[in-house]
Amino acid sequence: MSGTEPQEENKAIDETNDRKPDIISRHRPGRVVSHERLEQQLIFKTENSVELQIRVHTPDIIQLTYFLVGDVRSDFSYAINPDFEPEDVDLQFEEDEGYFQFSTSRVNGIVTKKNLLVHFFDSDGNMLCEDQHGFYRRESLMKGISEIKVTKQAPAGDRFYGLGDKAYEHNLRGRAFENWNTDAYAYERGDDPLYRSVPFYAALHNGRAYGIFFDNTYRTRFSFDRRENNISSFSSEGGVMNYYFINGPDLTDVTERYTRLTGVPEMPPMWALGYHQCRWSYYPESRVRELAETFRDKRIPCDAIYLDIDYMDDYRTFTWDTELFPDPGTMISDLSEQGFETIVMINPGVKVDEDYFVFQQGLENNYFCTRPDGEIVIAPVWPSQCTFPDFTHPDVRDWWGSLYEDLMAEKNISGIWNDMNEPAVFEVESKTFPNDIRHHFDGHPCSHKKAHNIYGMQMARASLDGMKKHNPDKRPFLLTRANFAGGQRYAALWTGDNIASWDHLKLANEQSLRLSISGYSFVGSDVGGFVDKPSPELFTRWLQLGIFHPLFRNHTMGYNVDGAAAVKKEEVELREAQIDADQEPWIFGDKYTDINRSIIELRYRLLHYLYTAFYKYVQEGRPILRPLGYYDQRDEQAVEESNEFLFGDHILVAPVLDKGQTEVEAYFPKGRWYDFRSNRCYKGKHKHTIPAPLEEVPFFVKEGTVLPLREVMQYTGERDPELLELNAYYSKSQVASQLYEDAGEGYEYRDGKYRLTTFTVKSSAERMTITAEREGAYSPPYPKTRINIIGLPLEPSAVQVDGEEKPLPEASRGTYTLEVSPDFQQLAILQKK
Ligand code: MIG
C-alpha cells in the first residue's frame, strides 16, 4: 500500500474490535529534534523517537539505518564482505533552514527537518533518488514488527534492474517481488519467489544509475511502481531498516560497488569453466564409466561429471550406496585419469537414524535446529524424516566442514553440489521450516523468519570451508541452489528446476544476466532443461547460449518424471527407462552430435577469454554477463534490448532463442563489431540482420580487441597447449584488452605466478600496432603465439615484430596470420608507401 497509509498517532489502539485483540503502533518520523556528527557518521533523532544513522563508507556507498527505542542494535551482517574496508571520506555537513545537507566528492544528500526524508543527488546536483514517505514501521504487541518500509519516488521512465533471481524481463517496473528462498520446481515465467534472495536493485533515472541494497534477511518485498503511482518501495517483515545507497553514474559501476561491498569468489579452477555433464542420476558405477568413455569416444569435450542423490546410501548424506558404487575411490581416480572431475551432491537434511554417524554426531552435540522449547525439528525430505544442522552456528559449520574430509582428502572429489538448502521440506504447503525454529545466527539468536534466507548461504559457507580445509592446495568448486546476497563469495549457482521449453531458454538468459548484474557472475541454467525433454533444435540452441554462461552444465531430471522419487529398478529396466530421458549431446543423431560437438569446442576455444573475464570479476566485481543497457545506458535501443548481451567486455552475443529461427535481427550498440565467423564488420547503433543457421553461433567481437583463443582439448588439462592464438581486430581508435593466465589450479598465482597481458591496438593511416605489456611471474606453457590480424583496411608493405622486419604473410580472406614469440611486445603492420 505504497504511500497510502494514513498518518496515524503512535500507539493507537486498534478500535475495529471491542475486544482489542492487539495493540498496534505505526511509526513515521516526525520533526528532527537533534543531530550529531561523528566522523563519517551522522545521527538524526525525531520528536517521536525515530533515529536515523547515516554512515558514509566511501564517496559512493552510504548506509542508512533507522532505529526505534528498544531495537537490537548490531552491525552484524552475513551479506557484507568481511574484507570490505570503508575509506576515509571528506564528508561535508551543513544545517540549512528546512534541511540538513551532506556531501562526499560524488554524492550530495539532504535530510528534511520536517519529517526525516532523505534525497540523493549526484555531485552536479542532479536528482538521483528521492524519498516519497521515506521510513515507516508497523508493529503490534502480539506479533512484534510486521512491516518496516521505505517508499521512494519512481518517476515515469525510471527503470529497475537486478534483484538476483527473478524469472522476469530485465526491467522490473510495474511489479512487486518477494524474497523468500523457495524450492520452485518447474517454475514458470513470472513465478516468485524462487530459490534465492538478493535484496539489491539498480535504478536508471534520467540516464544516471544508483543502487539500493536492503541488508535485511527477513522476507523482503520490493515494489516498482506496481500501482502505477510512480512510487517504489522496499519492505520487510522484521528486523531493522538498514540499506545502502550506491552511486553510479553507470549501471555497471553500481554492480561493481555492490559487489565490492558484498564480495567475490576466488578464482575457480580452469576445469570448472569447461563443460559439465549432469543428470538425475547417473548410476551404477558402470553407467558412469560408460558415460565417461562415450565422451572420449565421441570426442566431445567434457571436464566434469555429477553424481546426483542416488549415489548415497538411502539418501544419507556423506555415505555411498555400496551396491551401486562398490569402490568410489577407485572410480573417481579412474575418471580423473580420463580427465573427468567428479562432483557429488550433499543435502542439508540428515536422516533420522540412530545407527548413522552424521545423525549421531549432530544429536550428541546439539547441532540440529530446534523449536523455541528445545525440541529438535524433524521434517520429511529425501531420506524421509530428517533433522537439519543449524548452519548459522560456527561450531556446526566447522563440524559440517569436517564431514567433507573423506570426500576431499581420501577420495579426491573435485566439487560439491549443495541442493535443497532453501531449506526445502516435503509435504507441507510452506515447503520449508516453520517460522518459530530457533537459530544461533552467529551469536544473535533468532527465529527462522530471520534466518530462512541465509540458511542455504551458510550451508554453502560451511561446505566451502570444509572443502578448502581438507584439500587446501586444490581450488574448490561448489555449486549451491539457495543463497543470499554476498553468497557469491562461496559458491556458483544454477537457476534451478527449469523446463525444456523455448520460453525457458529465454528465461535462462534473463535469469543469468540478472544474477550477474546482482553480483553473481558464476551462473548458468540446466542446459537443455531439467523438466521434460528438449527437441534436438532446442537442445542445440541451448548449448549455443550455454557456452556464454560461466557455468556450462547440461542437467535433466532424467527418468524421475513428475517429481516422483527415483526408484531403483532392476538394472536392465532402469536403463530402458533412462534412455527415453537421455539428454547427452550425442543422443539426437549424428547430424546434431556434430553440431553439438562444435559448439562445445567453441566454448573451449573461448576459455582464456572467459577466464580473463572471471579474473576481472574477482578483481573489480565486474559482471561477466551484462544486458546491453549495462553497456550503454544512454542508448534507448540498447536499454530496451532484452536478449542480446555482453559476454565479458569485448563480445556481443545475439542468441537464437526462438524455434525455427535462422536469422537474428540484432541491434549493435556503439562501436564496431566483427562477426567471429566471417570477420564481417557491423556498425554500431544500428540493427542488422544476421544469418544464424542451426549449426552456427552468432557472436561479435568489438573492434580493437585482441581475443585470445585456446586450443580445443577434450578437457581443459588434457595437455599443455602448443599454441596461443590471438585474433587482433582492427580499430581506428585506441583499444585495450587483457589476457589473464595462471596455472588454472592451485594457489601459486597468489605468490605472483600469474601473467596479465594488456594488449593495446592503435592505428593510423601509416600503420596498425599491437603492443603487449605483461606483469607477473608465470610463464605459459605454449612455445608459440599466432596472431590473426583481422579487418585491416591498409595495404600492408611490411611487418615489424619487436623492431625486426618480418616477411609479409599472404592474406587469407583479408586476414594476415603471423607467428611470434609468446613474449612479443610490439607488432606493427605498415602501409605501403
Ligand atoms: O527434489 O537431487 O534442483 O537439480 O537433480 C528434487 C535431485 C531434488 C532438485 C535439484 C535438481 C536435482 C534434484 N533435486
Count of extended strands: 53
The portion of residues assigned to helices is 10-25%
User: Which value, in Å, is the CA radius of gyration?
Assistant: 28 Å
> Kindly, what is the distance between the CA atoms of the first and last residues, rounded to a whole number of angstroms?
73 Å
Ions, cofactors and other ligands present here are: ligand MIG
Question: Average pLDDT value?
Answer: 95
- Low-confidence region ranges: 1-11, 562-567
Please outline the major beta sheet. Answer: 10 strands, antiparallel
Structural class by helix and strand composition: alpha+beta
Describe the structure.
The protein has 833 residues and is α+β, with helices and mostly antiparallel strands. The chain contains 13 helices and 53 strands. The strands form ten sheets. Strands 1, 6, 7, 8, 9, 10, 11, 13, 17 and 18 form a ten-stranded antiparallel beta sheet that branches. The chain has a nine-stranded parallel beta sheet with strand order 32-31-29-26-22-21-20-34-33. Strand 33, helix 9 and strand 34 form a beta-alpha-beta unit. The longest helix is centred in the middle third of the chain and has 23 residues. The protein is globular and about 95 Å long. The termini are far apart. The N terminus is likely disordered. The structure holds ligand MIG. Ligand MIG binds next to loops.
